[in-house]
Write a structure and sequence with these properties.
six-stranded antiparallel beta barrel, 135 residues, 27% helix
Length: 135
Amino acid sequence: MMLKLIKPFQTVGNAFVKRVLRTRFHWILSRNVVLLEITGRKSGRTYFVPVNYRQSGDTVSVMTYRGRKWWLNLRGVNELPIYLKGERVLAIPEVITEDHDAIAAALIDRGWIRKSIARSAAADAVLIKLRLSNR
């Protein structure tokens, strides 16, 4: 019930975030949010997905829950356009679904979960590593 109430606000919020990240005002949000430009496997339609990220060198890491299906479109993709800190760059995605230790470590690193339950929570999460290819 609560999710149905939140959904309209999330839709409006995501539309705002998507627009801002592609403008010169990206700095308002781009310190924490990256925008993924994903092409649907079946529809061929382009989707823009804003997600929180962590960057380490030339690797940008993002996480999502398995229940969200947008990440399925990344399997088998060689290069993915992303908007990182106001710049559209290409990244090579690696979708990690079975390495529960890596997923648990990423959850802990972000401070999203306590260490004591990270391993069990990792089964419901997906870690996506994006290696920047044109920097």
